Amino acid sequence: MLPLLKPINYLAPMLVSALFLLVLFSGYLEFPSFSSPIPIPTSSVRVRGPKSPFTDLAAAFELWDSQVGCDRFRSAHARWVANASAIQADGGDCAAVGMGHVSVLVKGWTWIPDSMNNLYSCRCEMTCLWTKSPVLADHPDAMLFESATPPLTRKKGDPLRVYMDLEASRKPSGFEDIFIGYHAKDDVQSTYAGTLFHKNRNYQVSSQKRNDILVYWSSSRCLPQRNQLAQKFFSFISYHSFGKCLNNVGGPNVALSLYPECSMGENSVPHWWDHLHCAMSHYKFVLAIENTMTESYVTEKLYYALDSGAVPIYFGAPNVWDFVPPNSIIDGSKFSSLEELASYIKELADDPIAYAEYHAWRRCGVMGNYGKTRATSLDTLPCRLCEFVSRKGGRNARAL
């Protein structure tokens, strides 16, 4: 029997090779072409129309609707799974909420806007007074500090000490009873996805996108590492930089001369922030680079771009997809080089269907973790903090 094995072993590879060639040339098997466009990262709906430079966003949406549509997009992202643990869940069982009313006194200077001062109606039939006035909160259950250090000691009967640090380092003061940070592991989480940080702005969204200049950037804190990344990327693509860093538009206050419709009014004194969103909306892409690449540290830089109707090109938190809708951003870290990233951006800018798909999440109501990200922002902090204070017992909490 052994002599028969030799011809069989010899013929088997030949038969497999012949079958492979038959399948290949019959058209059932195709190899990707090196000249094929780069596929859209994170997207399950692969669309690629002919090269067609465009400026009309509404027309791009119409093309996408006719060739892809929301049903297909929803189906493609039906199994989208974000890390639920990146966002804190709600407070849980209301039975543990022992206080029907909680007051929080905000102490010293803070980024928290005065417009948050209010009496809130919260879940579990609880009310929450949030104020900077010691007159209104004459007997507070908690005192919140951000720029100042809380009291070094606390005895039972004193207000709970709350300390907030939303910077990347997330450093507790060491003297707080409750810590607020941007991470889900903190006592109370506050993301940057809210709107209260940026009121009194022109939110007009342009229906026309520039095709001559593709990328918007504005940064006035010129950190070396961020500047180097941006400068190298900009060597491959057209851009406008409106801040102090790498400015190429003639100064930091020229946006209104380019886009006068973004003015807040004839009698208003212009500030760089009041027309930020409106100016961004004229560009197809906005570059968003965080100060540091830290887990869950996703700041307003990204959310401003989403709010403006542009597509963010993002460099930052490695788990950014836990905080944004499916197929809503371009994660720059997923490309092998900045040149490859720039090539992809240029192709996307000339493909109205593929570009429109980056807006499909908004138009089709596909959110991923984004709804929870918004719901865990500064906008809802008063009620969530008051509930945490209530669960700890407020002034009756034992001293640590």
Structure characteristics:
five-stranded parallel beta sheet, 12 strands, single chain, 400 residues, alpha/beta, 28% helix, globular, disordered N terminus, seven-stranded mixed beta sheet
Shape field: globular
Helix content: 25-40%
SSE run: HHHEEEEEEEEHEHHEHEEHHHHH
Number of helices: 12
- Which spans of ≥5 residues are poorly predicted at pLDDT below 50? 1-45
Give the number of DSSP strands.
12
Radius of gyration: 27 Å
How confident overall, as mean pLDDT? Answer: 86
Adjacency order of strands in the biggest sheet: 2-3-1-4-5-6-7
Distance between the termini: 84 Å
Beta-strand content bin: 5-15%
- What about the largest sheet? 7 strands, mixed
The helix-and-strand class reads alpha/beta
Main location: Golgi
Membrane topology: Single-pass type II membrane protein
GO molecular function, one term: alpha-(1->3)-fucosyltransferase activity
EC number: 2.4.1.-
In short:
This protein is 28% helix and 12% strand. The protein has 400 residues and is α/β, with parallel strands linked by helices.
